[in-house]
Amino acid sequence: MKTFIATFYSHFAAVHFKKEIDALGLGRSRLMPVPRSLSSSCGICVRFETADPAPLERLVSEELEQIARVDGTEYITVYRAQDG
User: How far apart are CA 75 and CA 12, in angstroms?
Assistant: First the structure.
């Protein structure tokens, strides 16, 4: 299992994403404050664990800011919304 953090532009999007992760049965997930080293517009992120991140492509929306994989104490961006 790998751990990921998803950040959002709104609180509603974070809550919706968590519900979708849970519905897909991808693994454990929880809402939490965004770590300082990851910026976020709304301040809330979803931390989740999954063995297979491929189904996440279905959850990409205009409210998703980024998804980062947790690697020890570092965050490796695996998805970032495009500007403009």
Answer: 24
Domains (range + CATH), the chain:
2-80 (3.30.70)
Mean pLDDT of 12-39: 89
Helix (H, G, I), strand (E, B) or coil at 14: helix
* pTM over 0.90, yes/no: no
**Cα 52 to Cα 5: distance, rounded to the nearest angstrom:** 14
Residue of 14, 24, 82, 16 whose CA lies nearest to 54: 24
Residue 23, helix vs strand vs coil: helix
Q: Answer yes or no: is pLDDT of 77 > 50.
A: yes
Tokens, residue 71: 């690697």
Find the mean pLDDT for residues 35-39. Answer: 83
